């Protein structure tokens, strides 16, 4: 495995080194995305760790990636109209599958409940949440499970305009729980609210909602199948070489508390693809 990994990294480095006039003719794929640190971050040199995974997967197939940042709804629309070739990143839905060809899964994601450390909290079934005030962010979809609990009156929904506002309400004890992607949540707490806030909150490891992220390509694009297959091959190389795990570990170490990083690393690295996830 060590020699395979060294060979893979050497090939990847060669693909990133300018080679004069020939390099100018290297194939480029144009990918839309949105601002969503630490996954995707226009302000970082590497573009965020998901952007880095995507870039290196394509690089191993001698394809250069050019990312452009847009509001999320426009990002997908630009692929549908074939102005761009793919969009990073989206979960697979029945509606989207009719219009887009999906790559192999890139990364799993989960929504978990954040709560105050001084508030004992555990849950196995929805009835354990009875009577709790749950903060939600406007225009987000949290899945049928939580929607059903709200509609039935099992829990109380408190809707606000941003994730950071919900974290502040949680700290002020105005809500009991806040469902959030913990990768984003840990970075947001550390970078926008500071270590004291991060030390005051924690998340329950049981997922409220789980899915997988993919690259969607327009089904109307005649090159979509070829580009999808190239990306899938490159992603498989990253995972087999250990480089995929390295990228994730580095990102979690930079953006999460040690305890959270340990939990998240297991969730993000040690997962198996379900071949039926997005046929």
Number of strands: 11
The biggest beta sheet is recorded as: 4 strands, antiparallel
Proportion of strand residues: 15-25%
Class derived from helix and strand content:
alpha/beta
Pick out the low-confidence regions.
none
Order of helices and strands: HHEHEHEHEEEHEHEHHEEEHHH
- What Rg do the Cα atoms give? 20 Å
| Nearest-integer average pLDDT | 88
Shape assignment: globular
State the share of residues found in helices, binned by percent. Answer: 40-55%
- Oligomerization state: single chain
What count of helical segments does DSSP give?
12
- Ends distance: 30 Å
Question: How would you describe this protein?
Answer:
With 279 residues, the chain is an alpha/beta fold. It has 12 helices and 11 strands. The strands form 4 sheets. Strands 5, 8, 9 and 10 form a 4-stranded antiparallel β-sheet that branches. Strands 2-1-3 form a 3-stranded parallel β-sheet. α6 links the parallel β6 and β7. α1 crosses α10. It is globular and about 60 Å long.
